[in-house]
Every structure is written in C-alpha cells, then in structure tokens.
C-alpha cells in the first residue's frame, strides 16, 4: 500500500508570451485559459482523491491572494509557503521538504501547464511514487511531439523493473538541430518539470550538490514565521540564495534519477498560437472567447475581457483585449509578443 | 458691396461607415477626425469673418448639447433650430429661411465633410453670394477626382458672366459605368451639398415645386417656440413633412440653378480608408492616433480613445477602439463596417 502523495504546487512566474492576459500581477497559473478553471485550479484538481495528501503551495508574496481565492473557489485547503523573492525551483522545493517528514512523498507540480488527460497523470504519479519509495528521484517525461527548443530534454536509460527508466542524462533547452536529433532518436522525452521523490532523498541529494543552498533553506525555515496561515521563511537569508532550477542544481547531477513516461496530453500553452490550436474553433478556424464577432474571417483568435471585438476580413490574426491593452498580431508576429509583454510589465 | 452671408450649418446625421467612432449619439460632425476640431467646429470656423453673419445651426434634439458645447469651445454664437425629427435638407433649410428676411443670403453648409483649403471655400462662397444676389440658386461644384458612385453629380451648362455656370442638370448617385462617363466628359462636378441663395428665392422656388412642404414649414415655424435659446418648430406638423433633400425637391427642378467650382480640398471622409489616406503616416504607411504601437506593420491605421493598441506584423488593417467596441478590419473588409455600425447602433 502506497503512502499518500503530498502535492507540492509551484505557483508563480511571469510568463510574458501570453501578454496582455498574463501579467506580472496575474501570471499564467491564474488564468482560465481552457475551460472555466485557472491552470492553478486545474493543478489542484488533478491532485486530489484518496491517494493525495493536503497540498503545499509555494508562491510569491504578490500572488498569495490569488492562491487563497482559488483555494476558496475550489473548496480546498493547502499549506501556503510564501517566497519573499523567487529563488528558483530547487530552493522552493527544499523549503517545502524541510517542513515535512523525510518520508513524505512529494509530487512537484508546476501550475503553468495544461494536462488534457488527468487520469493518465494520476496513473503516472502513482508509478512515480512507487519508484520514489525505492529512493529514486523521478521525473515525468513527455513523448516529444516536435523538435521543440523551448523545453529541456531527458534521455532514457535502462528500464527499471516497474513502469520507469533510469535517466541517462538531463539536457538543457537544445538548439533546433539538436532538438531534431533528439526527436528522431526516439530516446528523448520533454522535461515537463514534474518530479516525485521522498523529501529526505531530495534534501540528501541537494546537500551533496548544493550544500550551501540546503543550509540556507534550513536556516530560513527555522527563522520563518506563520502569519495569516501562510509560512514565511526568514527573508534575508532566503532572498540571498542563488536562484537555480531543481533540474540544474540536482537532476543533472544525481545518479538516482528515474523517469516515468506520461502520455497525458501535456501542453505548456507557451503562446497564443498554441492556445489557439487548443481552443474550439468554428468551421473557418475562428475561435472567440468573450464578446466577439467575426465576419469574413479565417483562423482568427479572439479573447476579450469585456469590450466587443468586431473582426472583418482578417486571416490568421490573434486579438487579445485585456484591461487597457489591445493586442493584434499576425501569426508571424506572435513571436514578438513576449518582448512587448516584458516591456509593458516593467 | 456684398451683403453679409448667413451661414446655415446643417448638423446631424448618423453616418455608420465611420463606426464605432461615429455613433447615433455622436455622429460624424462631432468627431475631430483631422486635427483637433470636430467637423462641425471646422464648419463654424470656415464661416466667420467680416463677410459672414451670425450662423444658424439646424440640428436634432439628440445633438443640441454637442452643438452648444462646440459653440462654447469655439467662442461662437449661433441661432439653434431643433428639428423634432430629421425631415431632409429641403425642409431644414426652409425652416431657417422663413425665420430670416427674404433678402438674407444663406450659405447652406453640411458639417459632415472636411475642406482642406478654407481660403478657396471663402472665395467660392463670395462668388456664389454674388450670383445669389442676382437671384440664382447656387451650388458649389467639386472637380471629380474619381468615378465615385457615392455622390450626386452636377452637369455644367453655359458660363455666366461672373465666376459661375448655369447648371444643365443635377443627377443622383450614378452607377459605376455612368460615373466613369461623367468623369471622362469633363463636364460634371461632384455635388458637395453646399448651396447659396437668398432665403426668399429659395422659398419662392420651393413653393413652386413643393407647395405642401413649404406651407407645412411656415405653419411649423409659426407654431414654434424658443426654449433654452433654441427654436423648436411645431412638432406634429413638422414631423409629418415628407423628408426630401434640397437637391431632389428643388435643385433638380428649378431653372435658376447655377454652380461655382471650388477646388477647395473637399472630402466627405466617407470611410476609414479615406480618412487613413488623409492622416499623416510614417515611412511604412502606418498612422496612429491615440495610444498605439506598431511593430513590423505596414499601412496600419490605429485610432483609439484610450486603450493602448499594440499591432504586430499586420498589413493594411484598420483598427478603431471606441468605448466598448474594438473594430479590426482588413482593407477589403472595410466596406462592411457600415452594416456593422447600423446593426450595433440600432
């Protein structure tokens, strides 16, 4: 009988490629991009049921209210840990781990992606937890659909006796050529940033490769305080930690890395073009969310938070109205939205 | 020495081709489409100076406040006549004429167009007034720039001894083929709807061709009342008049019609495409009014009353943000804006 899994939901970020919908004050996890629930609410929803313990949410001070609102709306309870400044996933996960028993099985879930088949996610989580109980540091791997350069890749090693594999290597975001090689080799998976391990194993490995970070996290946890039901680590010491991703600080170094493949309809909804493909479309490829009106249009995407959008005679255009910003971009132009968002949200 | 001219400014309408900027509650004359002044303010500005008397403005009840605001803003005084319902230009002009001496020289000025060379307008007005003093009903003619089907045409007859011509015929909006013939003949001018005549001459001719209308207007004027400095004709009788244009009711019938050509940079700013050509453009043909931002764009037109518009990678697109409406149209699609406007402003 498997121990219960403690979901550790990481919730923050400042994705700018979905600007102006995604903003510094309300980043991607808090947007209902598909359906009625935000990506954070989707993450909460995926991690419930008899096999899951009460989740831990790590977020930033700017987003605590949004997290609490989502918990109220979904009727869930969670421990909230507030990072005074974002210091990367390695420290964020360590901070949660030091506050839980070493034996707790943590499932690290970013909340900036969509999972179309949550049942497959549940199954893969259990397989990962089984390996975690054997001392593995497990990641979920996604069968790559394209030679994508926006993700890290994981190379598969020998099969383990259960559903998983050893990891041969973690690789950072490759260039286009390398990504194409990975894709054709059939040996590589996308790294979705979902991990499963026992808290104690994680801390022991992190201690090995990042002893200073681990010590700093422990000290910050000891100096921390609970205010308004949220745990705040010691600010000065936590803020001084060098920000590193869990992948880079630990997974690339450890020889205890394993992988479970999860064909779970994963998408990071990396930009408006991607979201457009995922939204329901009419016979002409148009998709409208909010008050919109398409006349003689093809492949037009409209998202508006209020104003009525009237599109006439357009082809392959993204239109997003949010607050005081109106974005209108050709398909080709959409790669520049990120820059625009960064500039606007400065 | 010429008598002073009384400008008779017609101000109303519900142009929908400049929707959503032009709306039922704030139609084209009240929009500052070029420069800082509305077209109505431009019309007021053209008709001032030593040769002009205090103007008379005919408008609808819905627009009296906008008229008064414009008068305050420009520091002008005018007699305001309020039509209970719009009954066409023939009746509107008659209503003003019956309240003025028969000898008054009226200059009928619609306020839904732009005149780029007001000095030429002034000169042409004086020429027209000179003919009006001789008993002619004078229209200003515009040298046609294209085989336009949106305007009525005026065929030139023999030259008069001053700057004008007799009118051979007035013709309603022609089809494309006929318009092309008119253009190549060199004999036709566009009818800009600007007329000059003595009030008494106008009423006498109208009496001849539209005796019922003339009688109704006289009765409505007699039953009228001045309230809040505006003259309101008798509502029931005025509202029952059959709406007809001055052109149709009178100019097409009279043999006292004359024309003065006026190369005065006239444009009715009939749609966004036309306005786009008239606005200042950057090296890539983009023109932005309000808070707008063009990236990799060509021939993009932006007009926004507040929200920031960010356009990326677009070619030949019209973008208008007004109140709660956002219009985005291709060049080809822009002919459908009128329908959209009619539907939206119902």
| Uncertain runs of chain A | none
Tally of distinct domains of chain A? 2
The outline of chain A comes out as globular
C-alpha end-to-end distance of chain A: 50 Å
What is the count of helical runs of chain A? 11
| CATH homologous superfamily grouping of the largest domain in chain A | Spore Coat Polysaccharide Biosynthesis Protein SpsA, Chain A
What multimeric state do the chains show? homodimer
The largest sheet of chain A has its strands arranged as 6-9-7-8-12
Assigned CATH class of the largest domain in chain A: Alpha Beta
Structural class of chain A: alpha/beta
**SSE order of chain A, one letter for each helix or strand:** EHEHEHEEHEEEHEHHEEHHEEHEEEEEEH
Number of strands of chain A: 19
Main interface: chain pair and counts:
A-B, 33 and 33 residues
Task: Just name the CATH architecture of the largest domain in chain A.
Answer: Alpha-Beta Complex
Largest sheet of chain A: 5 strands, mixed, barrel
Helix share of residues of chain A? 25-40%
Radius of gyration of chain A: 21 Å
CATH topology of the largest domain in chain A: Spore Coat Polysaccharide Biosynthesis Protein SpsA, Chain A
**Mean pLDDT across all amino acids of chain A:** 94
Strand content of chain A: 25-35%
């Amino acid at each position: 009988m498997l121990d219960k899994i403690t979901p550790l939901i990481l919730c923050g970020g400042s994705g700018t490629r979905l600007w102006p919908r995604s903003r510094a004050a309300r980043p991607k996890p808090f947007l209902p991009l598909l359906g009625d629930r935000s990506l954070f609410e989707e993450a909460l929803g995926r991690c419930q049921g008899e096999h899951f313990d009460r989740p831990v949410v790590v977020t930033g001070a700017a987003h605590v209210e949004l997290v609490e609102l989502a918990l109220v709306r979904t009727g869930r309870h969670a421990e909230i840990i507030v990072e005074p400044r974002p210091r990367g996933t390695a420290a964020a996960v360590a901070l949660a781990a030091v506050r839980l028993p070493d034996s707790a099985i943590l499932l690290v879930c970013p909340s900036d992606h969509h999972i179309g088949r949550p049942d497959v996610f549940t199954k893969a989580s259990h397989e990962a937890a089984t390996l975690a109980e054997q001392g593995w540091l497990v990641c979920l791997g996604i069968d790559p659909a394209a030679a994508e350069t926006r993700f890290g890749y994981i190379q598969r090693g020998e099969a383990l006796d259960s559903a998983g594999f050893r990891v041969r290597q973690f690789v950072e975001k490759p260039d286009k050529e390398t990504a194409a090689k990975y894709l054709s080799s059939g040996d590589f998976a996308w790294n979705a940033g979902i991990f499963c391990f026992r808290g104690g194993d994680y801390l022991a490995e992190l201690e090995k490769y990042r002893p200073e970070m681990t010590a700093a996290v422990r000290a910050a946890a000891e100096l921390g305080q609970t205010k308004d039901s949220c745990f705040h680590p010691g600010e000065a010491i936590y803020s001084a930690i060098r920000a590193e991703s869990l992948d880079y600080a630990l997974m690339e170094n450890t020889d205890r890395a394993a992988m479970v493949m999860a064909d779970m309809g994963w998408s990071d909804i990396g930009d408006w073009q991607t979201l457009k493909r995922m939204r329901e479309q009419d016979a002409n490829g148009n998709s409208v969310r909010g008050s919109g009106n398409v006349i003689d249009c093809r492949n037009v995407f409209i998202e508006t938070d209020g104003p009525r959008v009237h599109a006439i005679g357009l082809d392959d255009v993204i239109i997003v109205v949010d607050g005081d910003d109106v974005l209108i971009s050709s398909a080709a132009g959409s790669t520049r939205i990120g820059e625009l968002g960064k500039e606007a949200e400065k």
